[in-house]
């Protein structure tokens, strides 16, 4: 049976790829973007199976209005995809207050507000899916990307906490954690802080030279077509995973980071136990 998807950030990248693949397989898409004319070709090809709305996800009132209108006009939305986002690169000292506020508003607050706007509708209709397109940057961290990582780690915590609250209503959650993919992210969809000479020879300066083409770019093994197909396939599963790690780089880097944190945690085990009150009995040895 055909489903209806609501997707943010559909003008490019994974959002665009998801929209194209879903329409091609006969599903209906409520596509939002800051520039809806970027979807004119799909509207011409697929007609009324593509519902469009202009949306800046940092405008919470507009977000609620668009979500309400989508459910009202389409009758039902089966899958809500929070995809809109971008990268902000630079050392913390190089970033402006406005850049910090915008990064958090787009990558973190907007995803939370989308969930708040859609949840009442999903509850009333008896269930649905949330798919959060996040990043392996929610499990690992690189220098010169501190604010980007802060938003991605934040959204991981939000959804890990929220998923058990939503499960009794038949609402499933999947956090998608892609690695570096060939979407133009970091070049066409990123913001660079103004450089400070003090950081020119550090990670911030190195990343800046890579993005400008002065140095070779980071490898980008991820195929956006395959990643979008894997995201769609996860929504076909009756019990989808909470996390969907996509890309060989994502898997390798997350594995190394998690093992490193576990090793560090175990190294501090005796100190952790030593700070319990004297009347606490140790029930298990880990």
TrEMBL record:
The keyword RNA-binding appears for this protein: no
UniProt cross-references to Pfam families, sorted A to Z: adh_short
Domain of life of the organism encoding this protein: Bacteria
Keywords: Oxidoreductase
Keyword set includes Protease: no
A molecular function GO annotation: oxidoreductase activity
Family under the similarity heading: Belongs to the short-chain dehydrogenases/reductases (SDR) family.
Identification of the protein by name: NAD(P)-dependent dehydrogenase (Short-subunit alcohol dehydrogenase family)
Species per Swiss-Prot/TrEMBL record: Catenuloplanes niger
């Amino acid at each position: 049976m055909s489903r209806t998807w609501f997707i943010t950030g559909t003008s490019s990248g994974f959002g665009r790829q998801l929209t194209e693949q879903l329409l091609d397989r006969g599903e209906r898409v409520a596509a939002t973007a800051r520039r809806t004319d970027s979807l004119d070709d799909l509207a011409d090809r697929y007609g009324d199976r593509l519902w469009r709305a202009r949306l800046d996800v940092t405008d919470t009132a507009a977000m609620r209005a668009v979500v309400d209108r989508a459910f009202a006009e389409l009758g039902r939305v089966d899958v809500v995809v929070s995809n809109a986002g971008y990268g902000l690169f630079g050392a913390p000292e190089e970033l402006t207050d406005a850049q910090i506020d915008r990064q958090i508003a787009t990558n973190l607050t907007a995803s939370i507000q989308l969930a708040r706007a859609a949840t009442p509708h999903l509850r009333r209709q008896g269930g649905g899916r949330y798919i959060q397109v996040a990043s392996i940057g929610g499990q690992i961290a690189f220098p010169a990307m501190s604010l980007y990582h802060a938003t991605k780690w934040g959204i991981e915590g939000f959804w890990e906490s929220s998923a058990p609250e939503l499960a009794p209503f038949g609402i499933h959650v999947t956090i998608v954690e892609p690695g570096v993919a060939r979407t133009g992210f970091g070049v066409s969809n990123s913001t660079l802080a103004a450089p400070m000479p003090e950081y020119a020879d550090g990670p911030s300066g190195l990343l800046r030279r890579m993005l400008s083409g002065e140095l070779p770019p980071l490898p980008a093994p991820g195929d956006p077509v395959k990643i979008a197909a894997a995201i769609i396939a996860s929504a076909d599963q009756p019990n989808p995973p909470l996390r969907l790690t996509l890309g060989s780089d994502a898997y390798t880097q997350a594995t190394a980071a998690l093992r490193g944190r576990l090793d560090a945690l175990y190294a501090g085990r005796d100190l952790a136990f030593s700070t319990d009150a004297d009347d606490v009995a140790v029930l298990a040895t880990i």
